[in-house]
Design goal:
The protein is mostly beta strands. It is built from no helices and 5 strands. A hairpin with a 2-residue loop joins strand 2 and strand 3. The two termini are 25 Å apart.
Length: 79
């Protein structure tokens, strides 16, 4: 039986210096958190998306399409 995670966990591909899909397509983020926890993604300090973890802890969200850029900050938090 699978036990839900006890903390926010991201897959290894979501890490420092990662490259995200640029517009016109949207980037999809996913991971695991405590069951029913709200996960929020902030891009350069502004909320860019949010999701609620399901009963098994899985969450996913889609960021709005972004123009090509560098030196952006993506922060993902769970509450």
């Amino acid at each position: 039986m699978f036990a839900p995670p006890t903390a926010l966990t991201l897959p290894r591909v979501l890490d420092s210096d990662m490259v995200l899909q640029r517009g016109p397509k949207a980037a999809r983020l996913w991971g695991w958190a405590k069951s029913r926890e709200t996960v929020t993604a902030r891009l350069d300090g502004a909320v860019a998306g949010a999701a609620t973890a399901d009963a098994s802890g899985l969450w996913n969200l889609t960021l709005p399409p972004q123009a090509a850029s560098t030196n952006r900050t993506l922060a993902i938090n769970a509450t």
